[in-house]
Design a protein that fits this description.
Radius of gyration: 23 Å
Distance between the termini: 60 Å
Structural class: alpha/beta
Bound molecules: S-adenosyl-L-homocysteine
Largest sheet: 7 strands, mixed
Order of helices and strands: EHEEEEEHEEEHEEEEHEHEHHEHEHEHEE
Number of helices: 10
Number of strands: 20
CATH superfamily of the largest domain: Vaccinia Virus protein VP39
Number of domains: 3
Strand order of the largest sheet: 16-15-14-17-18-20-19
Length: 401
């Protein structure tokens, strides 16, 4: 492991514009904003940033690769980022979640990256298993210390490490899916969300195993589902469907292209059959490309449709195409809705703004020629705060026809 303390501090001076952006609390310093650097920086070096008057501006984690060169940890007065600082930093983060959930929800996000002051680091709790996901190799030299602090402050049986794909070859001595603390995993991990039980794959599953960010939308869907035939398009492991079933849906159809996702949806239904409404609800799975299937299904066959596709714009250049795709999905789904039906359209594309997404869905709804009412729009839940413009990826709109 690299010795972080043996070389002089990495010191940077940045453009005037970057100074004010950082002072305003934005967590990223881009490589093209750096004006002076006292030495070559290594992955995970603590970079100290000084302003034009040579005053301390802030500190962050240096990453020599990729456009984001420094991810900010602290801005303001000079501060020593020692062990006690990291301990207090985690305590503050955990305090933000205190009392957000009752024991019926033991799966939620404990730390949401930049938005909690931990740039590129996410920590999710699934009952007694924690999943730590790292999106930049700049954390690797500090990981042992961070894992130790998490273990001290969050009671748990184990901590699993997940690494974003782009850093999996830069993570030595750590590897993707490793148990970095605690007991081995003998059984699949299960947890409770709003009293529903879900089984998840914390080692290989998408994100950290579950889309915790959609909890509030799932709760709303439960409240709208009574007596309805529900289509859950891009269902993943059936999260929305279980809520719809418990809310009294007559039937729910999980539509996904992945057989693994649909198998997980079946298992999750089986795990909740002790709930009478779930056992009375007819559950079907359909393995298909949702874009094609929505175009060919019989009109008016559903009373509530959820569209929750994966990110349709992974980069800025895909933005226009994604906006078009949201419109297309909306048009197809409206045709499948019975009069009186409800459409829940979601987007998790960070490159598509809230205005662009809502605009595209509203335009498609208007073009359908059907009368509709806008019931609600939603954004991030409390355990997924978004504190800077690029962080607002999640948006949803509810339309009644
Ligand atoms: N709504 C889910 C999360 C959806 S994630 C929840 O609340 O948990 C997106 C899902 O879309 C993934 O399961 C992925 O397999 C699926 N998917 C991706 N492309 C698809 C396509 N073209 N057609 C159908 N499903 C697709």
């Amino acid at each position: 492991m690299m010795d972080l303390e043996s070389t002089p501090n990495l010191r940077l001076r940045v453009s005037q514009k970057a100074e004010s952006i950082l002072r305003s609390g934005h967590p990223w310093l881009f490589s093209d904003s750096i004006r002076e650097q006292n030495r070559t920086g290594r992955t995970g070096d603590l970079a100290v940033i000084y302003d034009r008057e040579d005053r301390f501006l802030g500190m962050g984690l240096f990453d020599p690769e990729g456009p984001i060169r420094v991810r900010m940890l602290h801005v303001g007065k000079p501060q020593k980022l020692d062990h006690a600082w990291w301990q207090q930093h985690l305590t503050t983060t955990l305090d933000r979640r205190r009392n957000l959930f009752d024991p019926q929800t033991n799966g939620y996000r404990l730390c949401n990256g930049e938005n909690d002051g931990w740039p590129g680091l996410v920590l999710d709790r699934y009952d007694s298993t924690l999943v730590l996901k790292i999106y930049t190799a700049a954390w690797i030299p500090r990981l042992e210390e961070i894992v130790g602090i998490i273990g001290e402050q969050v009671p748990c049986e184990r901590i699993i490490l997940r690494l974003s794909r782009n850093i999996q070859d830069k993570s030595q001595p750590f590897i993707e899916g490793q148990i970095v603390r605690g007991k081995p995993l003998l059984d699949p991990v299960t947890f409770l969300e709003s009293g529903l039980r879900f089984e998840i794959d914390v080692v290989r599953g998408q994100k950290t195993g579950f889309f915790l960010d959609q909890r509030d939308n799932r709760r709303l869907v439960e409240s709208l589902s009574h007596g309805r035939r529900v289509l859950n398009a891009f269902s993943f492991s059936g999260g929305f469907s279980l809520y719809a079933a418990r809310g009294g849906a007559v039937s729910v159809t999980d539509l996904d292209i992945s057989p693994h996702a649909l198998a997980a949806a079946n298992r999750n239904f089986a795990l909740n059959l002790d709930q009478p409404a779930v056992s009375h609800c007819h559950h079907e799975i359909v393995k298909a490309d949702a874009f094609d299937w929505l175009d060919s299904a019989p009109p008016a066959s559903f009373d509530l449709i959820i569209l929750d596709p994966p990110s349709l714009a992974k980069r800025e250049s895909e933005r226009e195409q994604a906006i078009g795709a949201y419109g297309r999905l909306t048009r197809s789904a409206i045709k499948l809705l019975q009069p009186g039906g409800i459409l829940v359209a979601c987007s998790c594309s960070a490159h598509v703004s809230t205005e662009e997404f809502l605009g595209s869905v509203r335009e498609a709804a208007t073009q359908s020629g059907r009368l509709f009412t806008e019931l609600q729009t939603t954004a991030h839940p409390a355990d997924h705060p978004a504190t800077f413009p690029e962080a607002h990826y999640l948006k949803a709109i509810y339309l009644g026809f």
